[in-house]
Amino acid sequence: MPLNIDLQQILLHWMNLAILTGGLYFLLYQPVKKFMEEREEHYRSLDEEAAAKLAQAEQVRAEYQAKLDGADEEIRQARAKAQQSAQQSAQALLDQAQAQAKQIVAHARADAEHSREQVLKESQRELRRLATAATKKLAFQADPFDQFLDLAEGGDKHEDS
């Protein structure tokens, strides 16, 4: 054969290559491929579980956010009720204070009126007493001319004695 090529040797090498390729295919490639597919499936399932857990966590977060919003609304309403209650209490206290102030003013006016009446009665008594005393003095006193004459005559009596 030219160039020292043996056809039988080439066929044997091709056959060895085919057997080696087939053996490696069945012994190494398929198990590795199967392992890679299982691994890929495992990671895919982990990814799906993670996505499901993430979706669930997002749903739980949305529920808690809704609850927080509801709680905020309840707090706002409670605060508004408390503020309204405080305003009502303050208004009630203010009304009560105004009523007490009116009572105090009315009582003070009544006391002032009573004091005024007492002062008037006392002054009228005093005026009556003064008028009575003046009347007594005037009634028991004689005419000023008669008094002059009595004094003039009495002066002579005093001189004689």
List keywords for this structure.
161 residues; mainly alpha; 2 helices; 94% helix; 0% strand; rod-shaped; disordered C terminus
How would a textbook summarize the main sheet? none
Strand percent estimate: under 5%
> How would you classify the helix and strand content by structural class?
mainly alpha
Helix and strand sequence? HH
Question: Would you write up a description of this structure?
Answer:
It is a single chain. This protein has one domain (2-140). It is mainly α and 161 residues long. It is built from two helices and no strands. The chain starts with 6 loop residues before the first helix and ends with a helix. It is rod-shaped. It has helices spanning 7-140, 144-160. The model is unreliable at 157-161 (pLDDT under 50).
Quick take:
This protein is 94% helix and 0% strand. With 161 residues, the chain is mainly alpha-helical.
